[in-house]
Amino acid sequence: MHHIYRWFYHIQHVIQHVIQHVIQHAIQHVIQHVIQHVIQHVIQHVIQHVIQHAIQHVIQHVIQHVIQNVIQHVIQNVIQYVIQHVIQHVIQHVIQHVIQHVL
Hints:
The chain is mostly helical. 98% of the residues lie in helices and 0% in strands.
């Protein structure tokens, strides 16, 4: 009878040890899975943020470049127009002066 009790106690101890081991393993697996999931989520979020920031930077740069180009084009056109107008005015003035002088 005493032998059976000892044997039961031993089996109980082994089962307890196995259950403890299984629970520990399960907890470890769950923690690993959670950590992996969190890391994946964080990386995804960081990548999304970086891409958003990069797109914003590129758009800003493009807009700046376009505005610069437009301003340059407008200034060039204005200068061309002014030069043309001034030359026309000067020529007109010179012709008028020459005609006045000749007459």
